[in-house]
Known about the structure:
globular; Calcineurin-like_PHP; Purple Acid Phosphatase, chain A, domain 2; 5 helices; Metallophosphoesterase_sf; six-stranded mixed sheet
Amino acid sequence: MPSPDRQPLTRRQWLGRIAAGGVTLALGSYAYARRIEPHWVEITHHTMPLMNLSSSLVGKRLVQISDLHVGPVVDNSYLRTVLRSLEELGPDYLVITGDLMSSRRAESVDLVIDTLRDSPVIDLPTFIVLGNHDYGEGFRNDFVADELVDKVRNLGVTVLRNESIDIDGLQIAGCDDRWARRTDLNATFARVDHTRPTICLAHNPDIADLPDWSTFGGWILSGHTHGGQCRFPIIGAPVLPIKNKAYARGHVSLNGGRNLYVNRGLGYTRRIRFGVRPEVTVFTLTPV
């Protein structure tokens, strides 16, 4: 029972308390989005059914990371910590689906090399494709991408640019970047046997809507979107750098038996994430 000496709050006092609570919530949310979520990595686990998978590949683990954005914005010690921890996941294969760096020209290339060298990336069968930011400012500087590729390959890491490779009976194809206008699916699949298990790496998931997939029935692994980087109740992610908004994040079943997975990335172009934690994806290969 309220004290007889306690006066009820006036309408102005109620509104003042509500406003103060709103300001506190907004400031707390902003601090969380700036300081906590950008480095709060989520490890997600999925099965990857592949047709005609050999018994020797069943149960193998493939780990996907994406969008490191090594450079002046992303905390490099954070990236190195995440990369070193990948070994604990027991990967048999590692793929990086583009945007290794954020760079106007080639000023971030050496930092990318130092970051990769200080990780299990160079000790694992690792396969990389380029993203739009790997082409420097404007996404069209071939000399920037070429310098990055040359130095990454010197580490013994495979970079796929509209080509494919066979590893233990698993075909891994890699498309060059769409925004850089370097994607060539016909060249990418020129040596691929579509009756065998195949994974295609492509930074931008909009590539899945190109008409040149022929009889490909495997998995497409992408990044690029950062999951929208900020997602809100009801409205979702207001900014997505893709045409097909269904490709924001996670698994999407496509026509022709294809599957797409869009990784949310580790880095960022601005240090803010809300409702879209950075991601390391662990796939376990299984037969269809």
